[in-house]
Amino acid sequence: MKQFQYVHPASQAAVLDAIAKPGSKIIAGGTNLVDLMKKGVMSPDKLIDINNLPLNTINTSPNGLHIGALTLNSVLSENSLVLDKHPLLAMALKAGASPQLRNMATVGGNMMQRTRCAYFYDTAMPCNKRAPGTGCGAMGGYNRMHAIFGASPQCIAVHPSDMCVALAALDATVTIAGKKGERRIPFTEFHRLPGEHPEMDNHLAAGEMILGLDIPDNNFSKNSYYLKVRDRQSYAFALVSVAAALEIQGGVIKQARLAMGGVAHKPWRLFDAEKFLAGKALTEENFNKAAQLAMLGAKAREYNAFKIKLAPATIAEALKHAGGLV
Amino acid sequence: MSDKKPIISPDSEGISNGTRRDFIKQSSVLTAVALTPGTVVHAASDHMDEQIAAVFEKMPLKMEVNGKPHSLQVEPRSTLLDILREQLDLTGTKKGCDHGQCGACTVHVDGHRVNSCLTLGVMVNGKRITTIEGLAKGEELHPMQEAFLKHDGFQCGYCTPGQIMSAVACIREGHANSEGEIREYMSGNICRCGAYPNIVNAIQEVKAGGQAV
């Protein structure tokens, strides 16, 4: 690992000062960053440890449920407010990583984690995300894990998070701090598609940091489900995952929320399928139709064509669980 | 990677590959360190020129390991795993993949299991670490160690320290209530010999025994 300077500022103002300098990188849990630094994929000159900041609270607020950026994934997944109000988020968190990693990984760090594309990790291979302009190794390579939605000729990597898929479905907002003050953006607009700049995973500007999240109150807690399909039963990244949340009134779907993981450069919200389901009966046929709608525009590469069949089947299955049909 | 550059290179080639700005930075750091007594550098560590600290300064690390306080000097890039093994000679904690994928390096930090290979030493300053060496009370093995022996919860034994640290945490966390739950909450510990059924049996026995772990 390349040498770096380590600082441990005591205040948010000091953190914002420190990250304003090029080559600086925030570290919280470090589960992804330290790994990438060992591999030489990332090599910051300076690490800013933000664990002194009071950002690990979970509390109810006028905006719903507030979750501080330094909240550990393990703590969040077992928090009584989360289990009560947003069990979908707890399910997604428990589907991610291992208990040891969840004891280290923070909410903000989970959002900031990089793709697990093998070509991004292998510094001997071309990768427009790691080294812009060098090409994409995955495009003509072994792209079994890669995107079927929203990819660009420059990058077909996927975002690896489970937590973020649930947060996208639950209409969370992100609070971001910079030198000019704070701003809030919808969670679905935090991560970005690769386009011409796959080196940028999200819309966090240089010198900004994540303070926390808010999840608005909803009526999805009784009918939500996170279904993750992977190569082994636990502790593996998703081939496809689906967060499904339904508000049901008198046997009819009042509104639905759906998002997919493992298929795009960002958590992939299924707005068209959600609209279709509103006002529909809880039937397998409706779930299958919603799943087909969600697949419009999907594009497979050489080794990930199985996702074109797997994804709609996973959507329908997640909806069946959420709707209580299984 | 294209932007990978040596901060300090002892040979002229390294410097010639860098930019002029790097060269000036490097030379001034060298000069500053050469002219500054170590004690002064250390005393000023909170306010010192960032460039000096970046390259040369080892940082103080105080932590309690298995009940014993330690005061060390470590590079910021040293992982807790390497510090335990190389500086404290506690080689019970194993380096498997070194990338957080196998769990062989599992230790407890303030009572919670973590992958020590992904934990920077400087980030556990002031914390309490427990390794496999800290479980037994003298000659008396921890109940989980006894159970692994009884149930043959290993073959080659390399993953075993991590398995046992994780198994103890699994019970403490309240996630050992069924075979399925144990398998899920032990999924961060890989055993290439495939001793999983025996590991699950060992955990179930300790859990059923109701002893404090």
TrEMBL record, chain A:
It comes from the Bacteria. Residues 1-220 form the FAD-binding PCMH-type domain. Keywords: FAD, Flavoprotein. SUPFAM superfamilies: CO dehydrogenase flavoprotein C-terminal domain-like, FAD-binding/transporter-associated domain-like. The keyword Flavoprotein applies. The keyword Flavoprotein applies. Pfam families: CO_deh_flav_C, FAD_binding_5. InterPro entries: CO_DH_flav_C, CO_DH_flav_C_dom_sf, Diverse_Substr_Oxidored, FAD-bd_PCMH, FAD-bd_PCMH-like_sf, FAD-bd_PCMH_sub1, FAD-bd_PCMH_sub2, Mopterin_DH_FAD-bd. This is Xanthine dehydrogenase family protein subunit M. The lineage of its organism: Bacteria, Pseudomonadati, Bacteroidota, Sphingobacteriia, Sphingobacteriales.
UniProtKB/TrEMBL annotation, chain B:
Residues 59-135 form the 2Fe-2S ferredoxin-type domain. Pfam families: Fer2 (PF00111), Fer2_2 (PF01799). Keywords: Iron, Metal-binding, Oxidoreductase. The keyword Plastid does not apply. Coiled coil: none annotated. It comes from the Bacteria. PROSITE patterns: 2FE2S_FER_1 (PS00197), 2FE2S_FER_2 (PS51085), TAT (PS51318). NCBIfam families: TAT_signal_seq (TIGR01409). PANTHER family: OXIDOREDUCTASE WITH IRON-SULFUR SUBUNIT, OXIDOREDUCTASE, IRON-SULPHUR BINDING SUBUNIT-RELATED-RELATED. This is (2Fe-2S)-binding protein. It comes from Mucilaginibacter pankratovii. The lineage of its organism: Bacteria, Pseudomonadati, Bacteroidota, Sphingobacteriia, Sphingobacteriales.
